[in-house]
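**Reference record**
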Amino acid sequence: MREVIRLNGALSTGSVAGPATLAGVARKLIAMVPQVPAVAVGVTQSETESCTGGGSISLTVSAAGTSGVVTGDSITATAANCVEIIDGLTRSINGKLGLSVSAGSFDPASVSFPKDVTLHMTAENLSLDNVSLNGTLDLHLVQTNSVAGAVTVSAPTFTWKVSGAAPRTLTLKNYTQRVAQSTVDTASITVTGTVESDNPHYGGGTVSYDITTPQPVVVNTLNDDMLVSGAMKVTGKDSALLMTDTANNTLQLQVDTNGDGTYDTTQTVSRFALVP
């Protein structure tokens, strides 16, 4: 249960870097593209940019040279101890991230809306603080105005490896996640997919479970991602857990201990009781 809460935080705007954080990394990377002059079709150009907090990013770009990126542009970035502010949080970035624009365009500096772009992204040992990301995914980024927008991430396989005091590896399969920001303080999260984990909380070896959101999970992004409403269901081989937010950061936990479709136990806990 603790891991699911951590995963939920990573899927929103929490401090743990999860796949959705790549949207912020992509926006930061795109913002660097206008500094690279236009090149002829099929020709690439390389430059190294200094990061605002130290370190650097080496860019290999095939771009139209207009502000932002457009369909057909591609960028490969290799970060070396690059420190940048991503979605309000200071991140230390290392490793390689490649992206190509498969549809639409996106200019971070433009005040014209809506903005709509689809990116194909590949992470190779891309580390964000203590999280290493590997795999490919498609990211659909829409901004309807300066506040509202949505990010949809889909991936056949993506690995999220956490180092530090509680090391663990998560592999996401057939995974789709959408984070929609409707107001300055409200975001809605939906997710579906299979998670494989070697978290020692589960004992030895690797376990697998499916995760869905029967009701979108709504969080207050200006109040420590406080859970406002929604439900998340985790289904294992012979058991299931349904977590429903009944009040701000208060969860009702219903457990089906034998997989027969009937919840055998129910308890109410604080969100913080599940996250040490």
